[in-house]
Design goal:
heterodimer; A: about 120 residues; mainly alpha; Ferredoxin Thioredoxin Reductase; 5 helices; 2 strands; globular; B: about 90 residues; alpha+beta; Glutaredoxin; 4-stranded mixed beta sheet; 3 helices
Chain lengths: ~120, ~90
């Protein structure tokens, strides 16, 4: 597998998927390159470009929810953080991705529940 | 000093940063790379993580009895009793 060619393909494909969702690639090019390389390797080893920062299990249905770009499966959570969990994508208005924290799902849920809304997962 | 244990992924840049944080602060820690573990080990880890925090999001850091999910150096500082400038 030509990893560099696959990274370019994934970048082209992902950009088209995330743009209508209100996201863009992180402006941190080094981070984006590293994550795309990990995803290319995961795809070669396991069949899909899984998120490098979330764990696969023996449950295929669960695993499909962490195939990049996994934004649609975690929309409320990621919108709350203005980034996806691994940080490959950020909201279109984000210019300083380093300032965006990773907020764990249970903390997000508590905040949403306190505010009266949330997502089902 | 509080004990530090973490579940990480070998593919995750935030996990690498977390390990580097504790290394740079001379804080000993133990870790398991979930993706490099055997399936039975992964299933045990999965149960523990889901019971305590939900999805399998990494890094998963246990400082003493306190759990921190995600790269959060300010929280690590706080739980380790380090000042911001340290």
């Amino acid at each position: 597998m030509d990893v560099e060619a696959r990274k370019r393909s994934l970048r082209y494909f992902f950009a088209k998927v995330v743009e209508p969702l209100g996201y863009k690639f992180t402006p941190d090019d080094e981070l984006a390159d590293f994550l795309l390389e990990q995803e290319s390797n995961l795809e070669a080893a396991h069949g899909s470009p899984f998120c490098p920062c979330q764990g696969r299990t023996q449950n295929r249905e669960e695993n499909m929810k962490i195939v990049c770009p996994c934004i649609p499966f975690h929309r409320d959570h990621f919108d709350h953080m203005k980034r996806c969990w691994c940080g490959l994508f950020v909201h279109k208005d984000v210019t300083e991705p380093d300032r965006l924290p990773q907020i764990p799902y249970d903390e997000f849920r508590k905040a949403k529940d306190a505010g009266g809304s949330g997502e089902s997962r | 000093m509080k004990s530090v244990f973490m579940y990480t992924l070998s593919t995750c840049p935030w996990c690498k940063k977390t390990k580097k944080y504790f290394t740079d602060h001379d804080i000993p820690f133990q870790y398991v790379d979930y993706d490099l573990a055997t399936v039975p080990e992964q299933e045990k880890i999965e149960q523990e993580m889901k019971k305590r925090s939900g999805p399998l999001s990494f890094p998963w850091v246990l400082i003493g009895d306190d759990l921190v999910v995600g790269w959060n150096p300010a929280k690590y500082d706080e739980l380790m009793g380090l000042s911001k400038t340290s």
